[in-house]
Design brief:
The complex is a heterodimer of chains A (116) and B (114). Chain A is built from no helices and eleven strands. Chain A is an all-beta fold and 116 residues long. Chain A is globular, with a radius of gyration of 14 Å. The mean pLDDT of chain A is 90. Chain B is globular. In chain B, the strands form two sheets. In chain B, strands 2, 4, 5, 6, 9, 10 and 11 form a seven-stranded mixed beta sheet that branches. Classes of the chains: A mainly beta (116), B mainly beta (114).
């Protein structure tokens, strides 16, 4: 049972465009939703995170939009750059999330390429 | 650099063999998590230890086991290896068991079973 569904699997965007990656969840007990960025040969690193009492969070060029009623959240990258090319994972944390007592359940990842 | 150290970085072994992956968490972090990453399954949670005790289990096979030692480092033991066990194994750590804390990942151990 996949508790966090992520789409698309891959995405190609021109430099300066706004890639959008979407995630949907089912477990209403989730209460923390981070996004991780992974470059080839590296481990995932926390990019930005949101709690469900907030509808939007911005950090630099990265924005999370959160729709609690729809149980969906998305990552937007403004003014995207070739250096943003990476794999992005959404995740969710909460009791019985399947990620450990307080661990994370991850989406399957989106391979993003920003073309110059 | 996340502060989580994993060894070895790369490992090639034959089917049926046993290997041990080692993880040193960030200084002061009590929780250690193991994840398996493969192309088709993404990041799969295997097991979590907190201050030496097993805290939660995910999709960990019976052929796999882990432990966390008094100095908080952890080892993941993989035995009777099969071709399908080839994957990138990540260790991650977080400060406590309370949710809301960030999980920090190491750079992973690439396991190739031939």
């Amino acid at each position: 049972q996949q508790q966090v569904k992520q789409s698309p699997q891959s995405l190609i965007v021109q430099k300066g465009g706004i890639p959008i990656i979407n995630c949907a969840y089912e477990n209403t007990a989730f209460d923390y939703f981070p996004w991780y960025q992974q470059f080839p040969g590296k481990g995932p690193a926390l990019l930005i995170a949101i709690r469900p009492d907030v509808s939007e969070k911005k950090e630099g060029r990265f924005t999370i939009s959160f729709n609690k009623s729809a149980k969906q959240f998305s990552l937007h990258i403004m003014d995207s750059q070739p250096g943003d090319s990476a794999t992005y994972f959404c995740a969710a944390r909460g009791a019985h999330s399947g990620g450990g007592a307080d661990g994370l359940t991850f989406g399957k990842g989106t391979h993003l390429i920003i073309q110059p | 650099d996340s502060g989580v150290t994993q060894t070895p970085k790369h490992l090639i072994t034959a089917t049926g063999q046993r290997v041990t992956l080692r993880c040193s968490p960030r200084s002061g972090d009590l929780s250690v998590y193991w994840y398996q990453q493969s192309l088709d399954q993404g990041l799969q949670f295997l097991i979590q230890y907190y201050n030496g005790e097993e805290r939660a289990k995910g999709n960990i096979l019976e052929r796999f086991s882990a432990q966390q030692f008094p100095d908080l480092h952890s080892e993941l033991n993989l035995s009777s290896l099969e071709l399908g066990d080839s994957a990138l194994y990540f260790c991650a750590s977080s400060p406590t068991g309370i949710f809301g804390n960030t999980i920090y990942f190491g750079e992973g151990s690439w396991l190739t079973v031939v």
